[in-house]
Design goal:
The protein is of the alpha/beta class. The chain folds into two domains: 243 residues, Alanine racemase (TIM Barrel, Alpha-Beta Barrel), CATH 3.20.20.10; 119 residues, Lyase, Ornithine Decarboxylase, Chain A, domain 1 (Beta Barrel), CATH 2.40.37. It is 30% helix and 22% strand. α6 links the parallel β5 and β6. It binds pyridoxal-5'-phosphate.
Length: 396
């Protein structure tokens, strides 16, 4: 698989071109293709789509139809997965943070597999979901990822032994181990060291008489079509990442001896490059700041609070369909709200944009399908959340 982003499909381009108003469009054909590529690269891995990346019924149903399950982080997400047609035995509760009530609710829904990382959480699962299966999340450094996800989740190997032994003593099934190497993980090394830690821990657990049935390698697989904060393509080493994961799984099976299943919870990788926002130019303005230097600002109708929450860490590829051959000017790109966070950070590179952009001109924000719907405010400053549509043409 090439590290170059797959070009937007004809169906996605047509949907963006035809959209009369702002919206986010998801290309189900592209999402299916990304899923199938992932399955080809990692045939031993069962996919549990991380709902938080794109809690859209049509996307969840499309992936479920291909055999994917779902990783939910709250009873509401679990309910959505079931409603969208994911069989309950392919759904797990992947959040280590949950209240007694959340656990009881998930149990009532029939979900029987829970992430955990503390003995307190294990005690609560034993009480409110008796007999459930638990997998323990190991802490990782998050190094190499754009969003490290460190600190809040995961425990040390020594604590994992304690957590899984407590689970066994409480009548739960100690079923697995999990990691998350950080979202938009840019290095294969991160998986390498996580897989080494997992192998060491599986061996320790085996000596304690705990034989797990699965390892969950979490999310973190990257989107392919982002630009970094300065506008350079990120170009993650996806082929190397897959090769390291395959080799690590082979080693884990060897260490474990008994049958071992593998699960992953990709979110971003499946949907980011196959969703795009059709927005508008609010205004291209040139003004002098306190330093007296002239600066162009391109204000768009979408920004941090309505679709581009992650604009502090990445830049998106922009396409101006009504300006095929423009003269460019360097501009700071910002959203429409009356909030200064709603812009690419000031130390971030400027973006080359057509000089003659006018208010109302359409703009396509590409590779913006992950964490767009889920991180959208409920109309901050009176700017409505973006509606979504889906295209469902298979690619030729
Ligand atoms: C437990 C868990 N699994 C999976 C994911 C999805 O991660 P990504 O979108 O990087 O694949 C997340 C993201 O925060 C997560 O917290």
């Amino acid at each position: 698989m090439s590290a170059t982003p797959i070009p937007e499909s004809a169906a996605l381009r047509a949907a963006l071109a035809a959209a009369p108003e702002d919206r986010i469009v998801f290309d189900l054909g592209g999402i299916e293709e990304r899923y199938e590529t992932l399955r080809r690269e990692l045939p031993d891995v069962l996919v549990r789509f991380a709902l938080k990346a794109c809690p859209v019924d049509e996307v969840i149903a499309c992936l479920a139809h291909l055999g994917a399950g779902a990783d939910g982080a709250s009873p509401r997400e679990l309910e959505q997965a079931l409603r969208a047609g994911v069989p309950v035995d392919r759904v797990h509760y992947g959040n280590t943070v949950k209240s007694d009530r959340d656990i009881a609710e998930a149990h009532r829904l029939g979900v029987d597999t829970f992430a955990t990382d503390s003995v307190e959480d294990v005690a609560a699962i034993a009480e409110h979901a008796p007999g459930a299966r638990v997998f323990c999340r190991l802490a990782t450094t998050g190094e190499g990822a754009l969003w490290g996800l460190t600190g809040k989740f995961g425990c040390s190997p020594a604590d994992a032994v304690r957590v899984l032994e407590t689970a066994r003593e409480s009548g739960l099934t100690p079923a697995g181990l999990s990691v998350h190497v950080g979202s938009q993980q840019m290095t294969a090394d991160a998986w390498h060291s996580a897989l080494e830690d997992l192998a060491d821990l599986l061996a320790v657990l085996g000596r304690r008489g705990i034989t797990l049935d699965h390892v969950n390698l979490g999310g973190g697989l990257p989107a392919l079509g982002y630009l970094d904060r300065y506008g350079t393509p990120l170009d993650p080493p996806i082929d190397k990442i897959f090769a390291v994961i395959r080799e690590g799984m082979r080693h884990l099976k060897e260490v474990h001896g008994a049958h071992l299943r593998f699960v992953m919870e990709p979110g971003r990788h499946l949907v980011a490059d196959h969703g795009a926002i059709r927005a508008r130019v609010t205004r291209l303005a040139e003004r002098r700041g306190p330093d007296g230097e002239p600066q162009y600002w391109l204000y768009l109708s979408c920004g941090k609070f309505n679709g581009l929450y992650e604009m502090d860490a990445v830049q998106y590829r922009l396409h101006f369909p009504t300006h095929p051959d423009p003269t460019h000017v360097p501009a700071v790109v910002a959203g429409p709200t009356c909030d200064s966070d709603d812009a690419y950070p000031s130390d971030q590179g400027l973006v080359r944009v057509p000089k003659d952009l006018a208010s109302g001109d359409p703009v396509w924000v590409l590779s913006s399908g992950a964490y767009a719907i889920s991180y959208m405010t409920q109309g901050f400053n009176g700017f409505d959340p973006l509606p979504y549509t889906v295209t469902n043409e298979r690619r030729p």
